[in-house]
Amino acid sequence: MNRLILILPLVGFLALSGLLYSGIGKDPSVLPSALIDRPAPDFAVPELLEPTRTVGKADWLGKPYLLNVWASWCGACQIEHQVITDIAQSGVVPVYGLNWKDERSEALRWLDHFGNPYAAIAHDPENEVGIDFGVYGAPETFLIDAQGHVRFKHVGPLTEKILNEQIIPILNEVGGG
């Protein structure tokens, strides 16, 4: 019995060490998505700026686009906002917004303050679209090809480096860059 009491902490320590070691060198912003190379979920929800009009996947088919998940309460969304604006203004790829788990009035106030880079904004206050896309939190950005397949997902603020090293090569591959 005394041996068991001495061995148990050692076994626990080794198990915990193995678990921690397995995470070394992994990028915590990379969350796998079951949607990669699969059709993006179909959706049609109110447009943030014109709530009587619906927007969704069917409206955006025909050329590659970025779908940027954002919210007014999201501090990291402010960090990436200039990059999103620069992408939209460059014309390299259209950028659509998914305003996620947000009050419409707050989202409109945020856009008024920071500017609106989006070609259109789907409003998802109840997380119906977010669930289908597997959204963990804002910001998240999806690259969707002309046929409506998810080609790339990034969790966290988008940067010029991610744009140049990951998104542009995929756009070139799918004929959109």
Protein architecture, described:
The protein has a five-stranded mixed beta sheet with strand order 5-4-3-6-7. The longest helix is centred in the first third of the chain and has 21 residues, at 2-22. It has six helices and seven strands. The mean pLDDT is 88. The protein has helices spanning 2-22, 57-60, 75-90, 104-114, 128-133, 160-174, and strands at 44-46, 54-56, 65-70, 95-100, 121-124, 140-144, 150-155. The protein starts with a helix and ends with a helix. With 177 residues, the chain is an alpha/beta fold.
**In angstroms, what separates the terminal alpha carbons?**
68 Å
* Overall body shape: globular
Identify the strand order in the major beta sheet: 5-4-3-6-7
Portion in beta strands? 15-25%
Major β-sheet, in short? 5 strands, mixed
Please compute the radius of gyration using only Cα atoms: 20 Å
Number of helices, where a helix is a run of at least 4 consecutive DSSP H or I residues: 6
Structural class: alpha/beta
What oligomerization state is this entry in?
single chain
Unreliable runs, pLDDT <50, ≥5 residues?
A: none
**What is the helical fraction, as a range of percent?**
40-55%
The mean pLDDT is 88
Number-wise, the strands total: 7
Query: H/E order of the elements?
Result: HEEHEHEHEHEEH
What is the topology?
Blueprint: H1 2-22, E1 44-46, E2 54-56, H2 57-60, E3 65-70, H3 75-90, E4 95-100, H4 104-114, E5 121-124, H5 128-133, E6 140-144, E7 150-155, H6 160-174
